[in-house]
Write a structure and sequence with these properties.
The complex is a heterodimer of chains A (about 325) and B (about 260). Chain A is of the alpha/beta class and about 325 residues long. Chain A folds into two domains: about 170 residues, HUPs (Rossmann fold), CATH 3.40.50; about 120 residues, 3-Layer(aba) Sandwich (Rossmann fold). Helices cover about 25% and strands about 25% of the residues of chain A. In chain A, helix 5 packs parallel to helix 8. Chain B is α/β, with parallel strands linked by helices and about 260 residues long. In chain B, helix 2 links the parallel strand 4 and strand 5. The chains are: A alpha/beta (about 325), B alpha/beta (about 260). At the A-B interface, helix 4, strand 5, strand 6, strand 7 and strand 10 of A face helix 3, helix 4, strand 7, strand 8 and strand 9 of B. Strand 10 of chain A pairs antiparallel with strand 9 of chain B, so a sheet runs across the interface.
Chain lengths: ~325, ~260
C-alpha cells in the first residue's frame, strides 16, 4: 500500500463531462505544489479514468487516486464527499483543496461538516507557516487581505478559480484506485443533465486573462456588439455591469461585480461602465484597468490606469481598427 | 408544511464596507445594515409557495447580532410567520463550522420540511452554509436552483452550475439554495408592518441550542492577519480629440496587452 508524503495536499479535481480535468485543475495543483506534494482525487465514472489521471500528472499531481463511487452521476454531492472522506482517511493530508465552484462548494461544505475540519472558502492563494497551511483571502472586492488558518487539523480550502497563476511541473503520477464505502446519507437525485455548450470561441469570463466589459453607456443590445468585437480583437472574455444585465442586453452570467463574478485579469477594459462601487468590487484587482466613458466624473476613472473621456461610439471603433491594422 | 428561510443582516453594498484592522471583523457601525437581498428572494419564494401548500408556516432563522432585530422585523412585515433570532456575544466572529452548527441546531429545534437559503451572501460570499446544514441535518440538498417546485413530499428544481444545467429532485425534508434569478422580495405594506408587531420573535443564545462556541475539541478557522490593500490610484486620463482610440491602442501594445 502506498505511503503518502507527510506534506501531502489532497486536491479534489473536477472533470469535464468528457472526462478531462476541468479548467480549475491547473490552479489547484499549482497551489498545492507550492505548499506540499499534490495528491489528486478524481471522482468520475470508469470511462477514461486512466487518461484523466495522466492529464492530472501533466498538471503536477504526484499521486492520483481514482474513485468510482456508486451513483456518482445520479446523486448530488454526497458520492463525491464519500470519496473525499475515504481519500482524506488514507492520505492524511495537510490540507484539502477544492475549486470554489458551485459543485466544489457543495462538496467542501458537506465534507467539512461531516469531518468537522475547519473550512476556509474563496481563497486566492495558500501558504505554509510553522503551524501548517494558511489560506489567503481577498475580502470586500479586494479592499482587504485576510489570512486564515485552523486552530488545529487540516483545513478544507476552496480556491477561487483563476486566482493562482503558478503552475506545477508535469510528473508521472503514481495512480491508485480508491475504494469508497457509501455513507448512505440522503442526497438529491439528478434527473437530467445538459452540459453547457460552448457557443463561442471566446475565453470564459471566470479566470480570463483579459476582460472587456460593457455597461449602460452602450445604450442597446445591438450596440453591445461593440464590446464583443473589441473582445475578439483582444482575445478577451466579455462581461457586463449590472445595468447591462438588467436591461437584458446580455445573460446573467455576464455580470461582474459584488453580486456576480469577480475577475482579476491582466487587462480589464470598461466600456460605458460608470464604475459603481458594486461593480468595482468585482474587478478592481485587475492588473491594468482601461476605461472609456463620456462622463469625466465617472467613478471608474478613479481606478483606471488609462482613462478616455469621450464618445465610446467614436473611440471603440477607432481602437478596434487600430488594433486590427497593427495585427496585419 | 414547515418552511425555514435563512436570512441575515449585511452591510449595504451601496456604501463603503470596512473591516476592523484589529479584530478583522466587519465594522457594522460604519455601514448601513440591510437584510441581505438574496435572503429576501428566498423569503419571497417561500411566500409564493405558501399559497399552494397545506397549512404553511414560514419561520425566518437568523444568526446575527442583537442590534439586528429591527432589520429582521422587515421579514415578518413581508409575511413570514415567525422569527428565530440567534444573538449571542460569543458567536461574534463565528467561523463557518460554528455558524452551521448553531443554525442546524436552531432549525432542528424549530422543525422543518424545507429549508430555503440564498446561494451566496453579499458579504461573506461563502456559499457553503446550505450544504453544511444538509450534512448536519442528514437531509438532501439541492444548491443554486433557478426554479423550484414543491409538493407535499418533494422538491424539484433546475440547478445551474459552471458545467451545465441539471434537473434535480429530493424527498422532503430537504435544504435548497436559490440564485438571483428568483424575483426580488416584496415591499412590506402598511398592513404587513402592523401585523409584524404581533408576530412571535424567539431570541436564542448558543447555550439555548446546546452549542458551545468555545469548545476546544473542534477545529475552528481563525484569522491570523488582516490588512487593507492600498487604494488604487488613477493613472492617465485623456479627453478624446479624435485620436483617443489610436492612443489607447498604442498604450495596450506598449504594455503588451493587445
Amino acid at each position: 500500500m502506498t505511503t503518502f508524503p507527510e506534506d501531502s495536499i489532497l486536491v479534489l479535481l473536477e472533470t469535464t463531462p468528457s472526462g478531462t480535468p476541468a479548467r480549475s485543475a491547473a490552479g489547484l495543483l499549482g497551489a498545492a505544489a507550492e505548499v506540499g506534494t499534490p495528491v489528486a482525487l478524481i471522482v468520475a465514472g470508469p470511462d477514461g479514468a486512466a487518461d484523466t489521471a495522466a492529464a492530472a500528472g501533466d498538471l503536477g499531481a504526484a499521486y492520483v487516486l481514482t474513485a468510482q463511487p456508486e451513483s456518482v452521476s445520479s446523486l448530488l454531492a454526497v458520492p463525491t464527499v464519500d470519496a473525499l472522506a475515504a481519500a482524506a482517511g488514507l492520505v492524511r493530508p495537510d490540507a484539502i483543496l477544492i475549486s470554489n465552484s458551485v459543485d466544489g462548494r457543495d462538496a467542501a461544505g458537506r465534507f467539512a461538516a461531516r469531518t468537522r475540519f475547519a473550512l476556509a472558502v474563496d481563497a486566492v492563494g495558500v501558504g505554509r507557516d510553522p503551524e501548517g497551511i494558511v489560506a489567503h483571502h481577498s475580502v470586500y472586492g479586494g479592499a482587504y487581505s485576510v489570512d486564515c488558518a485552523p486552530t488545529f487539523g487540516a483545513p478544507v480550502i476552496t480556491l477561487r478559480e483563476g486566482a493562482v497563476d503558478s503552475r506545477a511541473e508535469a510528473r508521472t503520477p503514481q495512480i491508485e484506485s480508491l475504494d469508497v464505502p457509501s455513507s448512505g446519507i440522503a442526497a438529491a437525485s439528478i434527473e437530467s443533465f445538459e452540459a453547457r455548450t460552448v457557443t463561442s470561441t471566446r475565453p470564459e469570463l471566470r479566470g480570463a486573462v483579459k476582460v472587456v466589459a460593457g455597461g449602460r453607456g452602450l445604450t442597446s443590445q445591438e450596440q453591445f456588439a461593440l464590446v464583443d468585437q473589441l473582445a475578439d480583437v483582444l482575445g478577451a472574455a466579455v462581461g457586463a455591469s449590472r445595468a447591462a444585465v438588467d436591461a437584458g442586453w446580455v445573460p446573467n452570467n455576464y455580470q461582474i461585480g459584488q453580486t456576480g463574478i469577480s475577475v482579476s485579469p491582466q487587462l480589464y477594459v470598461a466600456i460605458g461602465v460608470s464604475g459603481a462601487i458594486q461593480h468595482r468590487a468585482g474587478m478592481q484587482t485587475a492588473k491594468t484597468i482601461v476605461a472609456i466613458n463620456k462622463d469625466p466624473d465617472a467613478p471608474i476613472f478613479e481606478i483606471a490606469d488609462f482613462g478616455v473621456v469621450g464618445d465610446l461610439f467614436q473611440v471603440v471603433p477607432q481602437l478596434i481598427n487600430s488594433l486590427s491594422a497593427r495585427k496585419e | 408544511m414547515k418552511i425555514v428561510v435563512l436570512m441575515k443582516e449585511v452591510p449595504d453594498t451601496y456604501g463603503e464596507r470596512k473591516l476592523n484592522l484589529e479584530t478583522g471583523l466587519a465594522e457594522r457601525s460604519d455601514s448601513e445594515a440591510v437584510l441581505d437581498e438574496i435572503g429576501e428572494r428566498a423569503l419571497e419564494l417561500a411566500l409564493s409557495l405558501a399559497g399552494s401548500l397545506d397549512s404553511p408556516e414560514i419561520t425566518v432563522v437568523s444568526m446575527t447580532p442583537e442590534s439586528a432585530t429591527t432589520t429582521l422585523r422587515k421579514a415578518l412585515a413581508m409575511g413570514a410567520d415567525k422569527l428565530v433570532h440567534i444573538a449571542d456575544e460569543k458567536l461574534v466572529g463565528a467561523d463557518l463550522g460554528l455558524t452551521a452548527e448553531v443554525l442546524a441546531a436552531a432549525i432542528r429545534r424549530t422543525g422543518f420540511d424545507l429549508v430555503i437559503a440564498g446561494n451566496l451572501s453579499t458579504d461573506g460570499q461563502g456559499g457553503v452554509i446550505p450544504a453544511m446544514l444538509a450534512e448536519l441535518l442528514g437531509v438532501p440538498h439541492a444548491s443554486s436552483l433557478t426554479s423550484v417546485e414543491v409538493s407535499a413530499e418533494r422538491v424539484h428544481g433546475t440547478r445551474e452550475t459552471d458545467g451545465g444545467i441539471m434537473e434535480v429532485a429530493a424527498a422532503l425534508p430537504a435544504v435548497i439554495s436559490i440564485t438571483e434569478r428568483f424575483p426580488a422580495g416584496r415591499f412590506p405594506n402598511f398592513k404587513g408592518i402592523m401585523a409584524a408587531k404581533k408576530k412571535p420573535v424567539e431570541k436564542l443564545t448558543a447555550a439555548d441550542l446546546e452549542v458551545d462556541p468555545e469548545a476546544l475539541d473542534v477545529p475552528r478557522s481563525i484569522m491570523l492577519a488582516v490588512s487593507e490593500r492600498p487604494a488604487r490610484s488613477a493613472g492617465m486620463k485623456i479627453v478624446d480629440e479624435g485620436d483617443a482610440g489610436e492612443k489607447l491602442a498604442e498604450f495596450l501594445i506598449q504594455n503588451r496587452l493587445a
